[in-house]
Amino acid sequence: MTIRLFDDAPGLFQARAQVLSCTPCDGGFAVRLDQTIFFPRGGGQPCDAGDIGGVTVSDTYDEQGEIVHILSRPVCGEVELHIDGERRLELMRHHLGQHILSSVIDQTFGVPTIIARIEDAGPHIELQSPLTDAQLMTAQELTQQVIDRDLPVHAAYYSPEEAAKLPVRGRITPHERIRLVSIEGFDLNACGGTHCPSTGGVEDLLITGTKSVRGVFRVYYCAGQAAKKARLDRGFAVLSMQRALSCENLDEFTAAQQALLERRDALEVQNHALREQLLRSDTALWAELSRTLEQGRLAAAILGDGDVKHLRAVAEALCAEQPSALLFAVRQSGQLSLLFMRSKSKTGPNLGAHVKDLCARLGGRGGGSPLLAQGMVPGSEESERAIEEVFESIAREYDLP
Question: Is Metal-binding set as a keyword in this record (predicted)?
Fold first, then answer.
């Protein structure tokens, strides 16, 4: 097994190692060393950035205890290892900050963390149930108190039997050796990541947002220098919004925000009523413009503009009233968006086949079922002529009187 120097020395950014193997692989060469300072991706933490023997490491991962480094060129013998120290420090701060935040939320509100990730889109944790804004601010304040106490952090390996006897927060993934990270007198968690030697190393932690996703409550955060920058950015943003709303202080801004939300809700109600009115009006209009066929009615048109979603609602309403076929092509940003729909019947044209054939001939994309088909083709006179021909072909299939 590769000796994982980062386990006991996460602040070690340079070392020497012996190349044990270097073999071609997808993406370059897979290099295995006797020891490494490169953290392999996993456990919600990305791998380190850096170089081995002057060659950039593009990826690092764990393969049954051996850490594999992916390089663009081969290396051999004894090599120098360098990792991006600033990036490692920020990862350490975020990882330990997450331990503290998750433990605070669990201890204070009884809500465990399901998963934690440090990603470019934003470090975050996912909780079993949501927290209120007041609870989140309490969690942030309590987390900062733990950071400021500068509690020692230790990591050690245990057997599964030993780990099972300890008050570990969260689930322990089965392994031959279990690595536990303890924050002295505060938290004990199974984790293979890199962490600061004490909580003070996190420096700062800021909750930056929340989102409900896949039935869980996601909390975004940042730590260290990223948190300090986020606080400044947030302060600038609030001042800018206050200025835009002519608010002299935070109380006035809060009141203005509430007024805007109430205005938004009122406009949504009004907008919904107008959309319903427009739907009834356009349904009546296209019923009037439809051509009478022996099997129902048909409306077909190439429109200069239009909302395809709205036209679909119109088509659905007409098809529900009586047997109908609605064929629309809408000009949109140099393209033609196709929407073909008909009522369900034992016989009738296969609209999906028509749209698929039309798109294939004109260099577009689309298809669908016999009852509903959509697509997109380039906007041109040639396309419009071809669409008009398809309109007539479908009308003939409906057996004009």
Answer: yes
Cα–Cα nearest to 103, from 153, 7, 168, 195: 168
Instruction: From 196, 260, 203, select the one nearest 230 (Cα to Cα).
Output: 203
Using an 8 Å Cβ cutoff, are 21 and 27 in contact? Answer: no
Cα gap 195→193, rounded to integer Å: 7
At residue 320, the 3 state secondary structure works out as helix
Number of other residues whose CB lies within 10 A of the CB of residue 63: 11
- Residue 279: count of CB within 10 angstroms of its CB: 15
Tokens 């800021």 belong to residue: 206
- Other beta carbons within 10 Å of 384: 15
Buried/exposed 31-54: b ≥16 CB within 10 Å, e otherwise: bbbebbbbbbeebbbbbbbbbbbe
Q: Which one-letter amino acid corresponds to residue 321?
A: E
The predicted-structure confidence for 250-266, as pLDDT tens digits, reads as follows: 999 999 999 999 999 99
- For residue 267, give every residue at least 6 positions away whose Cβ sits within 8 Å of its Cβ, in sequence order, or none: none
Contact predicate 304/286, CB 8 Å: no
The whole-model pTM stands at 0.74
Q: What is the dihedral of CA 165, 170, 172, 173, to 10 degrees?
A: 170
- What spatial distance separates the first Cα and last Cα of the chain, rounded to whole Å? 82
CA 24 to chain centre: 33
In tens, the pLDDT along 157-196 reads 999 999 989 999 988 877 788 999 999 999 999 998 899 9
Per-residue b/e over 77-99, b at no fewer than 16 CB within 10 Å? eebebbbeeeebbbbbbbbbbbb
DSSP strands (E only) in 118-245: 124-127, 153-158, 178-183, 187-190, 205-213, 216-223
- Cα–Cα distance measured from residue 239 to residue 229, given in angstroms and rounded to the nearest whole number: 16
Q: How far is the C-alpha of 359 from the C-alpha of 352, rounded, in Å?
A: 11
Question: Residue 123 and residue 223: Cα distance in Å, rounded?
Answer: 9
CA–CA gap between residue 49 and residue 52 (Å, rounded): 10
Residues 311 and 330: beta-carbon distance below 8 Å: yes
